[in-house]
Amino acid sequence: MTFTQRYVALGDSFTEGVGDEDESRPNGVRGWADRVAEQLVLADDSWGYANLAIRGKKLHQVLNEQVDAAIALSPTLVTVYAGGNDILRPKVDIDAIVDAYDGGIAKLRSSGAAVLVFTGFDSGQSPVFGRTRGRTALYNELVREIVDKNDAVLVDYWRMKILQDERYWAVDRLHMSPAGHMLTAKKVLEVLRGTDAIDLPELEEQRSRNRVEQLRRDAQWAREYLGPWVSRRLRGVSSGDNLNPRYPELIQPPLPAR
């Protein structure tokens, strides 16, 4: 099938769709990028869609493994977010990674594609990941400079304060829940000045917890998610090892049942 408009999504777990489980789809996830593609096709069936993002990828891997592959698909629209996994490492040179990012965004723009870039999320309320807030703030300022320099489009994820609500996050507290992915898809389409028919789910009532309940909940999370995450980092392995891109070639995205 020939597509006159071609959307290619690049990045890590954020763009792959982790947290928005759907066993009927490649890698068992759906995510905001799929949801954006679905809405683009509903408005105009000339759109094709590819998703090259793989969980766990650091910025240099996204640039080295995905940018040329994306350009080979002759995209008219590219979305990209990279750097989050670098920021979470014990040591990172923010200036260096963003300088490399600048080169990748420039290369994508030189292909003729419109490029949409995200700032990082404000994790200030997280007792664990909140320690990286200063790094993310610096990263974001440099990303904004990249966007201006390359005439790209920005989704300011940092300023989406509604996502501070834990109900928009998966149980691992690192990836968005389906509701978070839906909200992000609506924001992306808003920035692209596209229409959407995404109905956000009604969130469950958030009950208060006493200190003992919260400590018990935090301990369970540390055992089931934080511990394995730290272990992978220490062993130099990634949750994305042995995974392939979900949609490496342009497809008409699977549309949700009405």
UniProtKB/TrEMBL annotation:
Q: InterPro entries given for it?
A: GDSL_Rv0518-like, SGNH_hydro, SGNH_hydro_sf
SUPFAM superfamilies, alphabetically? SGNH hydrolase
Instruction: Cite the SGNH hydrolase-type esterase domain residue spans from the record.
Output: 9-181
What keywords are annotated for this sequence in UniProt? Hydrolase
Gene3D superfamilies attached to this UniProt entry: SGNH hydrolase
A single GO molecular-function term is: hydrolase activity
CDD domains xrefs:
SGNH_hydrolase_like_1
Does the record bear Hydrolase in its keywords?
A: yes
Q: Which domain of life is it from?
A: Bacteria
Protein name according to UniProt: SGNH/GDSL hydrolase family protein
Q: Which organism is it from?
A: Arthrobacter zhangbolii
Q: What is this organism's lineage?
A: Bacteria, Bacillati, Actinomycetota, Actinomycetes, Micrococcales
